[in-house]
Specification:
It is a single chain. The chain folds into three domains: 101 residues, PH-domain like (Roll); 102 residues, Arc Repressor Mutant, subunit A (Orthogonal Bundle); 110 residues, Roll (PH-domain like), CATH 2.30.29.30. Strand 2 and strand 3 form a beta hairpin. Helices cover 24% and strands 31% of the residues. The strands form three sheets. The protein has a seven-stranded antiparallel sheet, covered by helices on one side. Strands 16-15-14-13-19-18-17 form a seven-stranded antiparallel sheet, with helices on one face. Helix 3 packs across helix 4.
Length: 351
């Protein structure tokens, strides 16, 4: 029987020989993972067998590089992958774990809820809890806080998280709330921002979440950034990042000069309406931004000056108010529809 394809999409993978990280197209089947240099390639760069494999998440071996998970094969070979945001990592991890479990039991793959590594009551769903905490109206409020001559944007205190969990009846008391918060930190949903929170997360045998007003944290896929006291010009530049994150993920983008296509991580924000794009294999600084106020976005079937082998459908175009054209390619037709819908809404409502 042909292997059943379970999930596919872009992830960033660490090289097995060199230590470089590169975006690859990944296909998960019920017995292994294949990864390709490009989505259109017919032959994979490599294959990872899942029989006898183990999975570790979150993998915190790489410092500032978050949202990493590790697959160790039966022959003790380590493979490291990085997702572009928390929800994406959770989808991949859940399906890979299920595929490994099914192989061990000699069963056909079928999706089923699995418990995460931290020992919490069966009624607790950290993914759902994280979604509630990020709610713009009733969730934990992201603030701009000053500490040690630095400004932390889009963050909150450990005490705030504990109090939110209690006031929203997710925990009965502070020790219970602290246990939930520690689970969110262990699973990578929350990240430590300041030195105090980082010391708690990195020292000792177990990661510790601190129920303190001076311990700062942020959502893993938020617009968090830290800065020293800056000039008025810097503040204007940072204004681009203050909008709420509406959508994020990897897309193919055509370059303006060479007309070649590269995988970029995109983060769409509203008010102000900006879409920033990043090299998914590198740091947190964006390569560029698209101001979406007054822009037009449409699905297209053809891209001028594009090489034939680069085209594989699911294309769309953004034309800004300054008449700059951006050509992008989604992985699927459904994903293209979702991006177009989200960008259209932001371009009309955001400033």
């Amino acid at each position: 029987m042909e292997p059943q394809e379970i999930r596919e999409g872009y992830l960033v993978k660490k090289g097995t020989v060199l230590n470089s990280w590169k975006a690859v197209w990944v296909v998960l089947s019920d017995d292994g993972i294949e990864f390709y240099k490009k989505k259109t390639d017919h032959s994979p760069k490599g294959m990872i067998p899942l029989k006898g494999a183990t999975l570790l998440t979150p993998c915190q071996d790489f410092g500032k590089r978050t949202l990493v998970f590790k697959i160790t094969t039966d022959k003790k070979q380590d493979h490291f992958f990085q997702a572009s945001h928390v929800e994406e990592r959770e989808f991949w991890v859940k399906d890979i774990k299920r595929a490994i479990t099914c192989l061990q039991g000699g069963k056909k793959f079928a999706r089923k809820s699995t418990r995460r590594s931290i020992r919490l009551p069966d009624t607790v769903n950290l993914n759902e809890l994280y979604t509630l905490m990020k709610d713009q109206d009733d969730g934990v409020k992201e603030l701009k806080l000053e500490q040690d001559n630095r400004v932390f944007n889009h963050c909150f205190t450990g005490a705030t998280v504990v109090e939110w969990l209690i006031s929203n009846e997710k925990a009965r008391n502070r020790p219970e709330a602290l246990m939930l918060a520690t689970g969110l930190l262990n699973e990578g949903f929350l990240q430590p921002a300041g030195d105090l929170a980082k010391d708690g997360a990195e020292t000792g045998e177990q990661t510790a979440f601190l129920d303190q007003t001076k311990a700062l944290y942020y959502f893993a896929d938020s617009g968090f950034f830290c800065e020293g006291y800056s000039s008025d010009e810097d503040v204007l530049v940072k204004e681009e990042f203050r909008g709420n994150i509406i959508k994020q993920g990897c897309l193919l983008k055509q370059g303006h000069r060479r007309k070649n296509w590269k995988v970029r991580k995109f983060i769409l924000r509203d008010d102000p309406a900006f879409m920033h794009y990043y090299d998914p294999s590198k740091g947190e600084d964006p390569l560029g931004s698209i101001h979406l106020r007054g822009s037009v976005v449409t699905a297209v079937e053809y891209v001028p000056d594009a090489k034939k082998y680069d085209i594989d459908g699911n294309l769309f175009e953004i034309i800004t108010s300054d008449e700059v054209h951006y050509f992008l390619q989604a992985a699927t037709g459904e994903e293209r529809k979702e991006w177009i819908k989200a960008i259209q809404a932001v371009s009309k409502s955001g400033k």
